[in-house]
Amino acid sequence: MFAIIDIETCGGKFEYRRGHVIEICILIHDGLSVIEKFSTLINPQCYISPTFVRISGITNEMVEGAPTFAQVAKKIWDMTEGKIFVAHNVGFDYGFIKEEFASMGAKYKRDTLCTVRLSRKLIPGKKSYSLGNLCESLGIDNEARHRAEGDAVATAKLFDILMQVKSAHPVYKNKGMDELMVRRIDNIKKYILNKLPEECGVYYFLDQDQNIIYIGKSTNAYNRAMSHFNSKEQKGRKMLNELYNVDFVPTGSELIALLLESEEIKKHKPKFNKRKKADSFTHSIDWFKDDKGIINFKLTEYENAENALMSFTGYFSAREKLESWIDEHTLCLRYSGLTDDTSVCFNHQLKKCNGICAEQEEIEIYNKRAKAILDEYIFTHPNFVIIDKGKSQTQQSVILIEKGHYAGYGYIDTTEQISSPEEFKTLVKRTNYYPDADDLVKGWMKGNKSKVIVI
């Protein structure tokens, strides 16, 4: 059974207050003929711009008394359940319907069939496969173009012709519709998406030999994988051509997903991950207070850092970061280790330094700007745990910061009693330390309210 569908919208894509369904027509086709029809205007509860009024002829006044999508959702759900969702350029219609249901908290999934792709396969050589041009070349009348019922009826007539062509085709006549429509990438997409939950965690894309070719993290692994398949980027398409399998590690916590992804990329170095691969850090930006009490910054080799604020995989990236701090916070070159430690810095002559190096600025004022950097890159406490979401409602995650650095993570049952803060350390799985893990924790803490327990 097939559900042949056409919709009209007030936007090019589904977005809040931009694109919504304003008309729908569903024709139920039993493989021989249409046996049921449902057609209605839909009130999108938003303004239909003149552009989309011109396309469909549907005005704001016409939909004013029409039902909302929520009011016809049950009808749409029931009519299409157990049937193949058919449309001309099915990704557009199916995408809108799927997202309309998603906005209501419902997960709408149907097998789909695209009459554009089916037409290209069964009747090749056409100059254009738009519905209008196909109808014209095949003698299909459509007296209501760009209206849902008119286009749905035209699509049904096209579908009938395609079925007739298929039945007489020497190659395709004995093949089922699923075989006819499916490409390798479609099979892989379905297989991958069926394996991935709508949960937070880290996913691993594997090639034919089960080698890891890409590692990613997401708060919703299913949706993130879907975005890979929808990507038009050349690198993304190349990766999909090598994709055969997927593994998934649930984390519950977005922060743990960030940390695990970064660590795993460094460990496995997948060919399609460009960022976070480097696991060798060569330089750091260190800080200290001199005998005058002035906050100093300096570039140093990673092994020699005593109070590293950030660490880098090369000298030039470290230098670039320090120079950005100098510009943003009006720091002195002398007290940033970039000029002689006894001279007035050149930036003072350019009026880019307020004169701490010439004793023309009070130490307290200079330190206030420098301390803003320390506050951003130093944890408030050297030893603490972050309590975050677990992998279930009865679980919480524990992220350990020890001696000012990320040390590992673990999980605890919400019913479990912790007798002392130190006990959290026993719950944690220790991980390999990479300096950029501290940056991930700091960045996450800025944008998220988290429960912190000082140890």
Describe this structure in words.
The chain has helices spanning 50-56, 60-63, 69-80, 90-102, 115-122, 131-138, 148-168, 177-181, 184-195, 221-230, 234-242, 254-268, 315-329, 346-349, 363-377, 436-447, and strands at 2-9, 21-29, 34-41, 84-87, 112-114, 201-206, 212-218, 245-250, 283-289, 295-301, 308-312, 384-389, 395-402, 405-413, 428-430, 451-454. The protein has 455 residues and is an alpha+beta fold. It folds into four domains: 2-181, Ribonuclease H-like superfamily/Ribonuclease H (Nucleotidyltransferase, domain 5, 2-Layer Sandwich); 184-268, GIY-YIG endonuclease (3-Layer(aba) Sandwich), CATH 3.40.1440.10; 283-377, no CATH class; 384-454, no CATH class. The chain has a five-stranded mixed beta sheet with strand order 3-2-1-4-5. Helix 5 (115-122) packs parallel to helix 7 and helix 9 (184-195) runs antiparallel to helix 10. The model has no long low-confidence stretch (mean pLDDT 89).
